[in-house]
Amino acid sequence: MDRFRTVALVVGLAVAITLALSIAPATSQAPKSGGILNVWHRENPPSLSIHEEGTISTVLPMSACYNNLVLFDPLKKQESEATIIPELAEKWSWQDGGRTLVFFLRKDVKWHDGQLFTSKDVKYTFDVVRAAPDAPAKLRVNPRKDWYANVVSIDAPDPYTVVFRLKRPQPSLLMMLASGYSPVYPSHVPPAEIRNRCVGTGPFKVKEYRQGEVLELAKNPDYFVKGRPYLDGIRYIIIKERGTAVAAIQAGRIDVGFPGEVSKAASESLKAAVPQLVVTPIGQNVNDNLIMNIKKPPFDNVKVRRAISLAVDRRAYIKAVHQGGALPGASMAPKPFGVWGLLEADLNKLPGYGDPAKDKAEARKLLTEVGFGPGKPLRVEMQTRAIAIYVDFSSFVIDQLKQVGVEAALKQIETGVWHPMVTRRDYLMGTNLTGIGPDDPDANFYENYRCGSPRNYTDYCSEQADAMMDRQSQELDPKKRLQLVWEVQRKLEEEAARPIMGWRVDYFTHWPHVKNLVPHQSIYNYWRMQEVWLDK
Amino acid sequence: MKTYIAQRLAIAVLTLFGMSIVIFVLMRLAPGDIVDILYEAGGYVDPVAKKELTKELGLDRPILAQYVSWLGDILQGNLGKSYRYDVPAWQIVKPRIPVTVELAVLSLLVAVLLGVPTGVVSAVRQDTTLDYVLRVISLAGLSMPSFWLGMVIILGLVAWAGWIPPMLYVPPTQDFKVHVLQFLLPALAVGYRSSALIMRITRSSVLEVMREDYIRTALAKGQRERVVIWRHALKNAILPIVTVIGIEFAFLIGGLVVTETVFNLPGVARYLVEAILWRDYPIVQNLVMFIAIVVILSNLFVDMLYGWLDPRVRYG
After folding, report:
1. Which of A207, B92, B100, B273 could pair with B267 in a Cys bridge, judged by C-beta atoms 3.0 to 4.6 Å apart?
2. Which domains does chain A have, with CATH numbers?
3. Are B43 and B135 part of one and the same domain?
4. Quick check: is B257 in a domain?
5. Does residue B136 contact residue A208 with C-beta atoms inside 8 Å?
6. Do residue B153 and residue B203 come from a single domain?
């Protein structure tokens, strides 16, 4: 009996210890409240108004101050329609065959200044953003007006219901509303004030803003999600010099790096110096592309554009310019990070993605067909911004073009002049970077490839392509839509509308004590910080 | 003396007036303006909205009208509004001035404390090993840009000690020790470069004085070498050194851009570059005028100092 007791005791102890050990990691992973998170910010935000800016520099710090109607699940790495979760809206419903989107709002939400949040605020925000004729206010700069071109009206039948009425079905409207670019603004604060302060409903309030130095947020004690946020505050510390910022991460002065600013090489050296640092390779939803002015000869000829696209070996570009820190892809972000990217097999059939020798031979043939050759080379001026990443990109392309007999001369343009210049189409050929908010075809195609869009820098215009874009936009079946999106991408690349050179990969870096900060395939959409906590 | 100061101040006003024209015209000659850049940041251009914004900021008015209204505002003490931040320019500039002035003063202190003694020693021990070593060190200081040295200091610290100074400015009232640490490293980086210049001027100036008859006489009369050097030679050699120190201070006020950036200090110089890139005219114009005033006043101060250091100097 004694022996039995001893054995039972030993077994019991072993079970208890095993259980304790198995529970221990889970216990250590239970979120803890408190602490201040230090995040590197690369520059002073141009303003604090997300709706008036087109840069991550504003979205990143200000997202924690606001809420959207709906949001991409912050804990899921790959965004898609399936990962959209409610935020200010408790639920939503598509009606009238996809022509009406109804949101049912939470009733327990207050603005940071104590006023009650209602459907009036939602109507106000999106009427202002889409510049509705009867909008009560106007934005100084309105970069995403076109996202809502399909919205006919927004109604607020009662304080907690909002109805978006559309010209035609557009399932991707929900994707755009889930983006970090779509916060709801208070109807009682004018847009000019929002440029310098934040009156939001979000988990954090602005505590202090010292321009060029720090933007400090403090926990919103009245936040409508009970028990959130976990952090007491967040400091976005502005460090302009990249070398200093990387040193600050290494020294532990910074907990989280700025997305897209830690290069592959820097992340490798950081990891070597501090092995416990967490480095996550992830898409940025930013691509490098060639722009050719289609309104001007010789680029009005599709053969010339195609020859240029064929001349640039995409894989060599990624290796040489990005040291492998990018992915080949057409006009939508490629897999494994993106949802809509072409399959590898399809990509390899496109100009510039196949056998480089064969592609270059075809490029030379096409150029000969249109009258260019060794005796009469095509001479162009390649314009780009006077920033190192653009210049490196251009230098590589110039070298590739030389191999097919195109003589391109580099002209560097100051940043302040670049955008007005390409908007006026006052260029012949250039190298460009394009960032897209949510990983959705509507957010990309209509802005960058549609006939007449101001951001369609090449002025590529095809009725057929426009019709294909419309078709995919209103397709309610996701699988069918994906097929249509692939067709559009193939067409755009075949016609060299804006040849894509590669999709940048971010090496998102943070210390291991930062929990629940999950980078997504679009850098704009994971900065609410509601779920983030510090394990220290 | 009073007449001289009055004359100098009158010239200063004329200089500032000239400066105001130069900076105003130069800013407008640079391609692009704030409206272009705001739309660049926004990534979208609506020509009608852009035109309205140009009007709102007064940039559609003739250049002369813009200049007259800016000058009028300055004379009334109104520094205008930052185009970029939409807040009064003074609100942005005010907290940055003490940071830059403190860094410039500390750097100059480091430069003087390093440059003057080593210059004297180098002169007194001319053509000895010590002289050669000090000259090589000073030459290295002149050859190394201070921002590069700053970056080396930061990278060295993080590699060897796993530590760097805080990335956020800590005022002396909050934590004096941390504040000093924060300024000491950049002051050393900048001060080392300036000390090299001061050292070379001190050396050549002291060498010249050491060949004077009164120095030889003092030494021949049995005066101690230390007293002769520090009390007689240095005092007579000081004028060119003070001139260089004055020039260095004026240079430092506007020339700390990269050092402030590398050490992440929120000073005037760093902010000036940002404002230039954003074509934030009111901020750039006012900061340049501030720097011009500092340069003029420091030059005037140095000239006044001559009279105090050398009673033979007369103002007329």
Report:
1. B100
2. 3-204+511-534 (3.90.76.10), 283-505 (3.10.105.10)
3. no
4. yes
5. no
6. yes
One domain, residues B33 and B157: no
Look at B264 and A54 and tell me if their CB atoms are within 8 Å: no
B164 neighbourhood in chain A, CB within 8 Å: 247-248, 251, 253
Q: Residue B102 corresponds to which amino acid?
A: E
* Nearest chain B CA: its distance from A212 CA (Å): 7
| pLDDT tens string A291-344 | 999 999 999 999 999 999 999 999 999 999 999 999 999 999 999 999 999 999
Cβ separation A416–B163 shorter than 8 A: no
Give the count of domains, chain B. Answer: 2
Q: What is d(CA B114, CA B196) in angstroms, rounded to the nearest whole number?
A: 8
Residue A434 · residue A504 · CB < 8 Å: no
Cα–Cα distance for residue pair B287/A227, rounded to 1 Å: 47
Q: What are phi and psi of A85, to 5 degrees?
A: -125, 160
pLDDT tens, B73-121?
A: 999 989 888 888 888 888 888 999 999 999 999 999 999 999 999 999 9
Chain A residues 27-86 with a CB less than 8 Å from chain B:
38, 44, 46-47, 52-55
Residue entry with tokens 């670049």: A418
ipTM: 0.84
DSSP one-letter code for B229: I
Q: Calculate the CA A332 to chain-centre distance.
A: 12
Structural domain range at position B53: 2-83
Query: Across the interface, which of A195, A248, A435 has its CB nearest the CB of B167?
Result: A248
Q: Could you tell me which chain A residue has the CA closest to the CA of B85?
A: A47
Distance of alpha carbon A167 from alpha carbon A153, whole angstroms: 9
Nearest Cα residue to A238 out of B300, B260, B281, B210: B260
The enclosing domain of B149 has a CATH number of 1.10.3720.10
